[in-house]
Structures
1.
Amino acid sequence: MEQQKSKFRIGNLFKSKMLTLILLLAVVVGVFTIMSKGQLLNPKNIRNILQSITLVSLLTIGAGMLMIGGYVDLSLGGIGTMAALITAYALRAGAPWYLALIIGLVAGAVTGAFNAVLINELRFQPFIATLATASITQGLGYIVNHGQQIDIDNPVFNFIGTQRIADFIPYSIIISLVLLAVYGVMLKNTKFGRSMYLVGGNPQASLLSGLHPKRVSYILFINAGVLSSLAGILLAARLKTANTTGIVNQQFSGMTAAILGGISFGGGSGGMGGALIGILILNCFNNGMTIVRVTPYWQTVASGALLLIALAIDFLRISRTKKVS
Amino acid sequence: MSIIKKGLKAKVTPIIVVTILAMILFQVRNNSYLSLNNLKNLMHAMSFAGTISIGIAMLMIGGEIDLAAGAEAAFSGVIITLLIERGVWWPLAIPITILFGMLCGVITAIFVNKLNFMSFIATIGIMSVYNGIIRVITQSKNLPISYQGYYKVGSTLIFNAIPLPFVIMVVLMVIYGIILARTNFGRNIYMIGGNRQAARLCGINQKKLSTILFINNGAIAAVAGLVLASRMHSGSPTAGDTGALDAITASVLGGVSFMGGAGAMANCFFGILLLTVFNTGLTTSGLPPYWQIVAQGMLLLLALFVDFINERSRIKNLERRNAA
């Protein structure tokens, strides 16, 4: 009896998402370590990877939560970029750092709420509505300072953006990891977290069982808006300047990492543990390409291909679970 | 029949009204706005996204989307440049490029119909793959076309006023408009877009139809790309960056429902007209170019809002009729 139980567990482990993900991570790390002759795991390079993880993980949490709830938001890059510019503008106008930060985050929250209104009250398709918000926020980002970048010269922002613990671990990554843990626990262990899966998996059923899919969707969009604003602001703090490109190019990284990490596009599945490994895979992959000197153009190709691969893995996973059931 | 006609009229009327108002406004701000020269520019400017919007509208009516259409068009522009520069006779290079576009469509169709990816997310991936490849080929520079014989595709003026690219767009719109409205094939597209389940039960092969639509979209994007390459005298890596979004905005503005199953080609024309009137008008009024980005998002929202109102009144009418 005892033996049977343990066998069952090992079998489960092999079937589990986590193991596939960890294997994939090991493959990516292995391949790039060999190709770069060990440079990938060089402490100096790990330092770089840690830096890029900070940003992508915030976007991944926002996009991933939305995807679990069955939504998508293509305006996250635009929101983050706009929020960073607004924060920088407020700082330049003489606002204290906490006020500037709050203004930036509120701008993100308001845009997120705007998306939720379009989708819930006016019944627009999330994808097309957020596409419109994406161009509006991007345009507003330009308008904030006539298309010019705004330099940030604030000790607190500089500290968070550029300082590291023991000159190695950036302080900003603590924010990301803490948030990943908090959201992970919330998804797994709270009633609200679990209700999200039901809303994403079957909104009709969730409504009938007394949940409020509409309220959940408002929360998710506002949450994603705030998190991407934070990502945009942290990037600006690191660069000591907010520019109009901001995190526009990183927004699909968040989605790719979430899908890689097992958050299904159809909604209703996945978690933050998987997402963390998805983030690691994505960042090792991107960083690996840079250190083996793949030209930026091919990196664009590869990141698109990675998204398609992530979707293919998602597809295989879904078709396998269908077969089982 | 008259009800359908009325419905279409109602849908497109506000767009035409807004277009005319916008034209008057821009004419007031800058009185060369409605000059022949600027109207020529307007027609040139709308033909690229307008042509792409034909394929996109067909896909959207069928309930799919292709965000890579702009990249496909840019890719085709680069391909025809390479062909002509390698000495291929240009009338031969055109069909080869269109075949290439169709191949792009086949690739998308495999992802969507064989692997069951959602079309919008799959085409985001495909878009960045194509954009990357184009930049690798061109090293992110414009590839000039040195053979001048090919320039005339993009620069010929008919009656000394109407650019050939505009004529190509209109002719294609008419052809596809007729296909949509008058053929079995066209009506089947509405069916799969409106209610996939019902369409399947009626014996319509949804996957086959959607594959045809993707291939068709690739071919049309290729046409848009090769015409643009001729006009710009080069294959440009960035040509398609806004193409797909412009085309989607135009289609939605023209009343092609994003949920599938509704819309028509004539409306698409007015959609792209409004979008282009806005973009050129903002430029001639001397506003910085980034206002165009905001305006585009606003117009898209406006279009969706009009769609929402239409849909609601349609449902209300249905309810009233049922109650009576």
Note: Residues 86 and 144 of chain A are 7 Å apart (CA to CA).
2.
Amino acid sequence: ATVEVLFPAAVMSTVAMSNGELAIVCGLWAQFWTQSNGASQYRTIDAYSLSNSAPYINTPYAELYSGALNDYQLAAQKAVTANDWSYNLMITVMRAYTFEVLVDLFDRVPYTEALQSATILQPKFDDGYTVYKGLIAEIDAALSKDFRKGSHSASQIKTDFVFGGHGNANFADQMDNWEKFANTLKLKMYLRMVNAKPSEAEAGIRGLYQKGAQFLNLGAGLNVFVDAPDKGNPFFEFEGRRLNFNNLRASYTLTSWLSKNSDPRASAFFGAANPVPSIHQGDYLIGNNAAATPVIKATDPAWLISEAESYFMQAEALERYFGGAGAKALYDKAVTTAFAQVGLAPGALITAGGAYEYPSSGTLDQKIEAIIVQKWASLFGSHALEAFFEQNRTGYPKISPVYSKDPAYVPGQLVYSPNGATGAGNFPRRFVFPDVEKSRNTNTPAEAPIYTKVWWGK
Amino acid sequence: QNRTITGTVKGKEDGLPIPGVSVKLKGTSTGVATGTDGRYAIRISSANAILEFSSVGYAPQSVAVASKDVIDISLGTDAKTLGEVVVTALGVSRAKKTLGYSSTQVSAEEINRASPTNLASGLQGKVAGVDISTTSGQPGGSSKVILRGFSSISGNNQPLYVIDGVPVNNTRPGGAAVVNSIGDLTDNYDFGNAANDINPNEIESVSILKGAAASSLYGSRASNGVIIITTKKGKAGAFKVDFSSSAALTKVSIVPDLQDQYGQGFSRANNIAENGSWGAKLDGQMRPWGSEVDGVRQYRPFSAVKNNFKDAFDTGKEFNNNLSFSGGNEVSTFRFSYGNVYSNGILPGANDTYKRNTIGLSGSTKYKAISLNASVNYVGKNTRAPRTGTPKSGVGTTFYEDILQIPVDFPIRAFEDYKNKYYNVDGYFSAYSQNPYYSIYENGATFKSDRVYGNIDAKFKASDWLSFQFQQGYDINNIVDKIWDAKSAATPGSWAGGGNDEGAVRKPNVGDVVEGSEKYFEFDSKLNALFNKKISTDIDVNGLVGFNFNDRGSRVLYTGVEDLAIPGFYHIENSPNNPTSTQSSTQRRLFGLYASATIGFKNYAFLTLNARNDWSSTLPVQQRSYFYPGANFSLLLSEVYDLKSANISLFKIRAAYGKTGSDTNPYSIYNTLTKANINMGYAQINFPIDGVSGYTISNTLNNSNLRPEISTETEFGAELKFFNNRLGLDISYYNRVTNDQILPVASAPSIGYNFRVVNFGKVRNRGVEIALSGTPIKTKDISWDIMYTFTRNRNVVLALPDGLNKVVLKSAFDAQLVARVGQPLGVIEAPVAKYDPQGRIVVSANGFPLQANDLGAYGNSQRDFIMGLNNNFRYKEFSLGFAIDYKKGGVFYSGSADLLNFVGNSANTLFNDRRTFIVPNSVVEVKNNAGQVIGYAENTKAITESNVFAYYYTDLARAIAYKSRIIDKTFIKLREVTLSYTLPGKIAKKIGAERASVTLYGRNLFTWLPKENRIIDPEVSNLGNDLASEFGEFRSGPSTKNYGLSLNVTF
């Protein structure tokens, strides 16, 4: 095995999960889309009725460990043996990203004892905080190496789906971008800790800025997909090519917000004129036959951290710890980038008096809400996973006290599914432990109800 | 004093002349054979001469010539006498009395009574300790044969098939390709297992070795028992022609019982494009139905269609013709045979067919001390099979999955006119399913194999007590198969293209074509030294020492492409996409050294000792040699004591102890990389991507410290015959423990692997086999033979590795087939409801039952017992026979039931007449602020009429839905009924025949199922023919029954 064949396979494995079925599930919970009334594939998700053996829990869990993480581990060993610190950084960042997805979904996962098949067959679970600290330390260690030393051949650069530019990137740019990716990932992880470990979050973020850390000014993601069977964007391959978009329909939660704001992204997201015909979230037993289908194409890129996401995070960091100077500019840039993702421009929406104008004079909470709600909308598509996490972290978009059919409903607020099995107001906050682990590892912790927040949750 | 003795040899029972009987002058090599008229003439030179008459199937007789010139004798058949000879391990014939283990021999006649096309169906219900299922109604479909229970958790549980001393391949095609790759056909196409290639008409007899003591000389592959097949050979005597021909009709046997109260619709709304019967109550009025095409809908009474499901199928045809020529003299013999099977199954048109041509040629010759035998067999097979299970999403459709979804008030058979504007791709009523007939006429799979097997066997008799044997066997199979799915998409705006009342558009299928090639080879060489020596008047020893080399492997290559450019042209290049290929190659070798000796004392006590050592290429170097011994003992009490006064003609007790060692699948030692095909469930991402190739560490962690598996078996038994052999009892008890099984055990993915190959634990099978045979009536004109078999096997998993409490063997949705310590292998677990301490069902906020935290057991796949009953009445030339097979107990998962529940076609969906109801005896949890349950309150949340359908599916009603899809698998089948008429010898002679008979037969004519199972024959499975298939079926086709007529003539 060589790093050159292991690394791209592992990266694709991470992306196929994070931007595939997990994005579908989390997009249902972030209320971008809902279960179609003409099909039943995702009803259990919209009904918050999770089974330990559900494929959308087991497949990603098993693939991320035995597909992605196991390959990263062997690739890292090979890179270290060869003193190839560039691949080492790339691998370490991707490994950290992958572990973070897992621990954010499950709250606790095996980390310190994971991936040691020769000695530990039933790894203990680590709490999220331990995993986070470990991952940040791993990234720091990789950054401390001389990863700019040497160079990569064009065919090696091509194995970097994230920044390799199909083999056309230059090695120095490639490494600059990986460093930015590493910093932005750390920023993301510190921001996740603002509720549970506020001082550590602050210290970490201040530390990044003090060192003059550069953050992503381009999207970190894969743009290698073509419209051919088994070679397209994972979300499209799953829901589109194989399930023919029979299941997902526009959610009234998102479409009512787009409509209220006359947001031109409505037609880009759903291929229908604003207001987009939609189904109230979770209302699949009644539904609306004319509801629009989300538009996700085979050739869409799959983001790990999108460019807009990077700016939204920086804006939040500036508001939280640096008095907000420059936050508006980053917010405006973020919204503009988010629109540009779908080939549009916000125009008057972000200028004074516009619906998305930055609340410069508002409270911190109002500012954070503006940032996160815009971020939420920007994560539509195969990056929906992050929208679910960020709602859990910040509480934005807000939870609606009434169902969306109620006249008092405020567009864009999340509603509790009418078929919900968890009891009113108990929104899903985490996955249950997968049967593939639970039945084979006696160290699997006792189950918490899925409406229990994860360690960093609000 | 040279003179010639003449005479006629006739059968004791029927008085007919017996041709080909060997007549030998005792103590010399002089011998002749009887002619077709049973006559012989032999020259003798001494008045003290003794003539020995022998023929297979008859008890030999010796007659002193004295002064006689004519010696006419009658030979009695040999079936139940002490002199019975059986074929044992390595093709060695031994007197049955010397065996210390249970051995069952079944004759050609018993197997072929109802003209089966394969051996397994000819054995069903006839042998104790053997569980045989026909896993599909597809002509040429697979058989599952399990001897003394399942013992391997994920390996192979099928017995080893040995033909004339040589092991042959029994692979099921499509299983060798990489799992989930395009060549993995396991759940979707049944092209039959290779043992079904053997033409049962070529079989002289079958010997079934069930236990380790009996089978261990075969080594590694015999741990699940051995089926030893002896083929027909030419015999010294006149030229003989055998001809048999049969023609049968095939009909569908068990079809689901559907509800007849509610018509098309879903959720109580009569949306016309819905694929289910959740609509309005049927009222018998003329109403429009189905799609609207050109503004017009069709009319028919709004009532359930009678026999709807049954009428969806055709009556199939099956022809089975066999012709053979044989003959020979004292020096050489030959036999040539040709067999042809043509079967067109129950699907309309020639869309499920099985064609098989078999040619066999065998011969033997002798020169001085050397004798040579050789055989070559060719099997040409051509099969067309429909897909079962679930198709690859977005590519094709499956008949069985679609037919289950047709509303009960729609006439299924009308849809066969699949080009009609109401039923075609555009006009088919449902946007959620496809016309089932479209997929059988437009999609398909063909399979063609050319297989050659046989052996060359040379014997050299070095002295009167020692001979040497060299045998070289071969089995080579070349398979090509092809699968295609039509490209189909409803025209936009047409009924199924969005022009329906729901605006739903049917998922287009892009079509595909897959070309596969599978090659299998096996070469088996043996060198034996055989000895047979009388040491003293009381003691004799016979046995063998030998060496075996086995080399076998496979080459499998599949290439496929999705999305056809030109519809209907099924060619790999016909696509804008690049084809993808998957490949696997295996080769394994094994050396074995073995020895066996039987010591006989005074002809009533026999002790056999055997041992074998194997060296297998599939095990780590340091562990590849393994040794396993065995011993068995038989004592003929009826020879020691005179039991005649007690009417006991035979009383034999036996005991055996044996081990079998077993290696593993090739390539289980070192870790491997595999091409990265990232599986997402319904979809996948396959490398290369963007011109980059990706490889991933295999998800199975191999093991370089593997040890061989060892099974240990102890067996006790007794054989009794009473009243001059009119009543017989054969009883065995066995206890087999399979230890150190080598298998990939599911592991926690967090270790980096989903499976680990390990040696672990134990599975124990214990059981009792009883065979009771009797001949209540036996006169010249009337006879009645009856045989009853009873088998009870109990298996239990004694240990699982690493403190695991279960190992999942197979799953469907949330249901799992698992191994649990202390439980039988194959417990079926699925979601169960939560109950409060008072036993009331707990429902969630939405009114549907809450699921308990852990899966619950619904039973296991193991049977309580199996019984077989065989009867044969003869009155003069007529005989009437039947065989009944009763398998009691066990449960299975039905994927057909789950779909029938989902669409509201199943009879159990009529609960409460589908009106609004509150789940009976239900409560809700009362929680405190911390979210802890502090009590229970009455549930007031109803399941509304429009939501009743959800009560039968796994999304909202997961906690209770599995009750209706995990079903009792008990059944009783009338396996065979035969009525034969044998032409009296004189009449037969007039048409130049020696024997002629006509038989009316039926196979599986009647099946009785318990009330709970209104869905499907529990024998069918599209999950292979091993342990995984014990889980049940996933939208498999129905089983079938046959009626036919056969003619057998010997010239």
Note: Chain A has a mean pLDDT of 95.
